[in-house]
Fold this sequence. Notes:
Elements: E1 3-17, E2 24-26, H1 53-61, E3 66-69, E4 90-92, E5 97-99, H2 105-115, E6 118-123, H3 130-141, H4 146-153, E7 164-167, H5 182-199, E8 204-208, H6 213-223, E9 229-237, H7 249-253, H8 258-272, E10 280-289, H9 318-333, E11 338-343, E12 353-356, E13 359-362, H10 364-375, E14 379-386, E15 389-393, E16 399-403, E17 405-411, E18 418-424, E19 431-436, E20 446-452, E21 469-475, E22 482-487, E23 491-497
Parallel strand pairs: 1-19, 2-3, 2-11, 3-6, 6-7, 7-8, 8-9, 9-10, 10-11
Antiparallel strand pairs: 1-14, 4-5, 12-13, 14-17, 15-16, 17-18, 18-23, 19-22, 20-21, 20-23
Helix pairs in contact: 3-4, 3-5, 5-6, 9-10
Amino acid sequence: MNQKAVFDILPDHVDGSRDLMIFGHFLEHFHRQIYGGVFDPGSHLADENGFRRDVIEALRKIKTPIIRWPGGCFVSAYPWKKGVGQRVPYYDKAWRVEEPNTFGTDEFVAFCREVGAEPFICTNAGTGSPEDMSDWVEYCNLEIGEWAAQRRSNGQAEPFGVRYWSIGNENYGGWEMGAKTADEWARLVLESAKMMKRVDHRIELAIASIPDLDWNVKALREAGDLLDWVSIHGYWSRASDEGVFEKGYENLIARAFQPEERIVAVKHILGSLGYLGKLRIAFDEWNLRGWCHPHFMMFGPTDHALMDANDINSNYNMADAIFTACFLNSCLRHCDVVGMANFSPAVNTVGAIYTHADGIVLRPTYHVFDLFANHTFDEILHSALASPSFDVASEEGTATSVPRLDAVATRDSTTGQVGITLVNLHGEDAISCRVRGLDADRYSGATLRTVNGNAVDAYNDVDQPDAVSIAEGQLQIADVSDFEIECPAHSVSVLSVS
C-alpha cells in the first residue's frame, strides 16, 4: 500500500544552525574498540603509530568532528597517569580484564589529529578526585607545571589544547563505580569544575546527567555558571547475557523517537532552571543497541567470549540505519539545544565500523552518517510534515503509533543548496511524499541518495560488504516548488536540490 505524506518547507524561516559535532563518535576501552580496533600495531594495515589506516580513512570520509574517550564505565576507575610515560598495566575493574595501557592520552590525541577530530576527554569522577582531573587538563593544555613537564618528557613538546572535557560518566547509576547521590555529585562537580577551569579557563565542561529535575537542580545550582554542557546517554535495545540481540524490526523501530523525548525532557529542565541558551546538550553516548557485556553487575568471573556476539555483523541491519537517521533528524530539529552527539562506539562492539584482519566492514549505520555528514547543511529550515502512521505491537501487547515518514530540510547558507532527509520507517511499504515550498526559479536539479537493503534484516559482512549501501541518481523535477518523491520501504534518503 502506497500512502502519501506532505512536507511543507518554509525557506524564509530558519529554525537555527546545525552543529557538526552532532556527528561525533565515541571510544571506550572495551572488547575490541581500542585494541584490535583503532589501535593494532601488529596489523599490516596499521601506520607507524599503530593506528589502523583503513579506520582513519573511513572516519575522515564521514567528517568525524569529535571523539569522546576513554569511557564509558571504564573511566570511573581509570588512573590516567599510568597511561602516559612509563606504561603500567593494571586490572580494569569495569570490564574485568588487564588493561595494558599502551593506548593512553598521547595516543588518543594523536589518533584524533589523524582523523581530523576534536578530542573530548571524559574524566574519572568515580574513584578520581578534582585534583586528578585538573592535573589531566594541565598535562594536555599547559606549558608550565609538573604535568606539563611530564608531557614534554614524554616527547610531546607542545600542549595538546584539548577543549572539550566531561566530569564523569553515568555517576547517577548504581552500576557505575563511584556512583554518587545528587548532593555528593553537586559538590564534586563544583570542586572539579573550579580546579579544571583554574588550570585552563578556555575549556568547555560537560557533566554526567539524566532527564531528572532533582539530579540536575543540585548540580546546576552549585556549579552551573562553570559549565557548558549537560551529557545524556541512551541505548534502547539490550543484548541478553547470552549474547542474543533483539531482531524484531517493528519492535526496534517503535523506539525511533524516544531519543527526541529525552532531548525535550532535558530541554525543559534546562529551561526551568534558567540555563536554556547557556548550557547545551551533549548526547555523548547513544545507539539503538546496547553492548553485550554479560553479567556486568554480578561478582565472580565473566565469560568474555560472549562479548564476541558484539562482532556478529548480522545483528546490525536496516533497523539500526532507520533509528540512526531518526536520531540525527531529532538533533537537527532541536539544534537550539543539541550541540553534540557521540555515536557509541565508532569501531566494533555495536559500532558503525567492523574491523577484521584484512580490512573493515561498513555497517548500515555508517552509510547513514555518510549521508548526513556529507549531504545535509548548516541551516535548519522551518518545515511541517503530515505523515500517515502505522501501529506496532510491543512485546507487552500494547500498540505504538509510528509515523511512516520522518523528514527535515536543511540549506547551505553559502550556496543555497537544500538537503532534504526522508526516512521511511515502514518495513514493507513505500511512501510517496509531496514536497512543497521551494523556489522554482532558484533550483533546477536534484540528486537522490538512498541507503537501503533488500529486506529489513539486510546487513553488511566480510563476504557481502555492499548489501546495504548508498544508491545515487539524478531526478528530473518539472516544478521544484511542488513535486512528489517516492521513498522505498525501510530507507533513508537525502534529496539534494540545487
